[in-house]
Amino acid sequence: MATTTDPLLDQEDPQDGPEIRRQASHPLPQWSQTSLTSPQVEYYFSDENLPSDTHLLACCGGRDNLPVSISRICGFKKMRKYKKKVVVQALRKSTFLVVTEDGKQVSRKVALQGQCALDEGYFDDTEIAYDPRARVPAVLPVPLLPQEKKVYPVGMSKNMMKPTGFEKTYVEPPITPDEAKDEAAMYDPVKSFVERIEVAIQRFKKKRRMHEKYSHVFNKWMHFGGVETGPRMFGGLSRADMTNMDAEEIARATASHHVSWERNDTRFWTVDFVGVAEAFLSTYIAPQYSHNPEQVKSACQVLRSFYNYLLYHSVCPEFNDDLSRALYICDKAETELPQTYTAGLVLPGAFNTAASTIFGGSKAGLYTGDKEWAIRCKEEGVDLSELGVMDEEARITFRSGIAILGTDQQQDMLDTKAVKVLQDVSLCLCIDFIELPDELTREMYDRQNNFTTGKLKLEPLGKMVCRPWQVDDFSEYDLPLDKYPTGRPSDVEVDREFVFWVEESVLKECFLGMKLEASVLLVAE
């Protein structure tokens, strides 16, 4: 008869192997070297200990005999002196226990029989030699303890998973009387705003876990708002140095953000929480993070958390109304910035792309799908939908839209040769109204798609009404107001209304008040 051997069992038994196995399984007594009055029996999985060991039962499930983490066992007081590697090697020699192949868990070879502390009535024993009040029964049902190590997201540690203070549900803790007294002195309205905000910034940072993603946004925001940010040079303080300092002195001594005293000059500087929030979110956060909604949410939460701190601690009560409006800006940006990015990906839509292709706009002459390299890429499954539109496909898309939504005059102009481009205008637009396609329009497009099944699928068109919008800047023009009411040159009338036909899926990504930079072709007969 052939026999097989387990290479794991052939390993040499460690020096402390018998002692480890005895503590982990067998109920053999061992007299303490420091006390001869009571024996210390070190056993865990034995029939004598396991039925009443609530903690170990919660690990193995009692009669279910679930594997128990060896790391957890190594954390027991009697087992801490042994290395895990030595424990695993010793337990593999046991005739009572079974170790998993990966060496991470251990269980009994024969499951526990009979009642245990997990069963109701286990402690209802009238023939006992001790006072029942000396033993507290388990609270049933006993939940099982996890035996596998908790897995954290990539790049995160256990400490990084703790609350940071930037959670949306975070609430500032109550202020003690001593803290209220200190803050009343630190944020006294008699002091200048520069003094108060500098102390508030440092105390805010001290009460938050500034992970890298929060610290980066906070420092950029402070610099954007006129607060100087930099390392503290030659300003190290020991605990002994700070013993006799009050809270305000400690905050100033440990500050890494400073506000120049020049900011007190109201002739050149003003406090504008709303303006800084709008400018920072639209010019820095939008280009950097708008493609990722979670990053936008984190960035907005940094601003929101600081504003709430200023309100809660009454740092600058004279600006409470501005802080409330700035909080509204953060809530608005959290939803609109990702939506603006998505809208930029889907605009101008298939219909306007087709019109640009036909009338020589920016999309004309871009189609390369008939090239040899493009054909090979298509065969390999590469998406080449952004390489322009075929002229034939563009004409079908454009003519279908005119036929379904156009007026009689526009339908008479379906011969595109009769249409002439008057002007190519680049301007900023603001969306005033969005009208989704009605049921009749959807029905007409369904009929049209029946004729182009498998070749071209057209989406029903809705309407997007826009008006010109000018970006405020510091440019100055010396122009007559009767000809230029806004005092600035413009290629189109300020009160002119533009109506664009756009696909329904694209319109759903837009919202009222959204600003666009567009190139518009003005055509006529």
Automatic annotation (TrEMBL):
Keyword check for Coiled coil: no
One Gene Ontology cellular component annotation held by this UniProt entry: ARC complex
Database matches in PROSITE patterns: HTH_LA
Stored InterPro entries: Arb1, La_dom_prot, La_HTH, WH-like_DNA-bd_sf, WH_DNA-bd_sf
UniProt keywords, alphabetically: RNA-binding
Keyword Secreted on entry: no
UniProt-listed SUPFAM superfamilies: Winged helix' DNA-binding domain (SSF46785)
GO terms classed as biological process: regulatory ncRNA-mediated gene silencing
Single GO molecular function: mRNA binding
Record-annotated HTH La-type RNA-binding domain positions: 27-116
Coiled coil spans: none
Gene3D superfamilies: Winged helix-like DNA-binding domain superfamily/Winged helix DNA-binding domain (1.10.10.10)
Pfam families tied to this protein: Arb1 (PF09692), La (PF05383)
Residue segments, region Disordered: 1-33
Descriptive protein name: HTH La-type RNA-binding domain-containing protein
Lineage, opening ranks: Eukaryota, Fungi, Dikarya, Ascomycota, Pezizomycotina
